[in-house]
Amino acid sequence: MQSGKLIVLTGPSxxxxxxxxxxxxxxxxxxxxxxxxxxxSPRSGEVEGKSYFFVDxxxxxxxxxxEELLEWxxxxxxxxxxxxxPVMENIQQGKSVILEIELExxxxxxxxxxxxxxxxxxPPSTAELEKRLRGRGQDSEEAIAKRLQRATEELEAATxxxxxxxxxNLDDALQxxxxxxxxxxx
Length: 186
Ligand code: ADP
Ligand code: 5GP
Fold this sequence. Notes:
Blueprint: E1 6-10, H1 17-27, E2 32-33, E3 37-38, E4 53-54, H2 57-65, E5 69-75, E6 78-83, H3 84-92, E7 97-100, H4 103-112, E8 117-122, H5 126-136, H6 141-156, E9 163-166, H7 170-182
Parallel strand pairs: 1-7, 1-8, 2-7, 3-4, 8-9
Antiparallel strand pairs: 3-6, 5-6
The structure holds adenosine-5'-diphosphate and guanosine-5'-monophosphate (5GP).
Guanosine-5'-monophosphate binds near residues 13, 36, 81 and 101.
């Protein structure tokens, strides 16, 4: 059986990665979204094991030490990482797996999986990014400030990625993402 593709989706917090992915997965249930572990507290509506595996810092540290994570990074005061086993199993079964991760993690994946397709999602402007982060209404002022600061660094790295995709109009961005994933001539 042919191995599945590893797809990395990165972009600043609030750019619309989660929104794009939930539409993409509804339309393409054959795609697998990797569920990360995080030390961040759950937001309202987030579901254990579906949105994230919510763990404490000791447990996260233990996952690092026992090499259970494909990559991990600290982001805005919390740790985030990709559990290896489900990703490797799905890829071996020929399924395409999407990692929705931040920049440092994407850089680690570039080293360990040079064949991964890495996509960076850009906002139409930084003003619109800030508007979306606030509009989501899920983060404290402090968290929003940290995310905007990190966004500046991340946006500068967009050209490291194979593909840059602007999420201006949602339907257009979704269609472009589908073209990238499914019309690449494979
Ligand atoms: P991320 O997962 O990148 O942090 P979200 O998917 O949570 O971002 O989106 C942040 C906010 O922006 C949400 O309130 C979402 O509804 C909104 N949003 C996402 N895409 C668009 C878009 N193309 N146009 C306007 N608002 C959007
Ligand atoms: P949030 O707290 O908004 O859910 O996520 C914050 C950031 O962490 C986002 O940029 C998201 O892509 C990233 N992230 C989520 N899971 C992982 C992961 O497993 N590894 C890494 N490196 N980043 C992650």
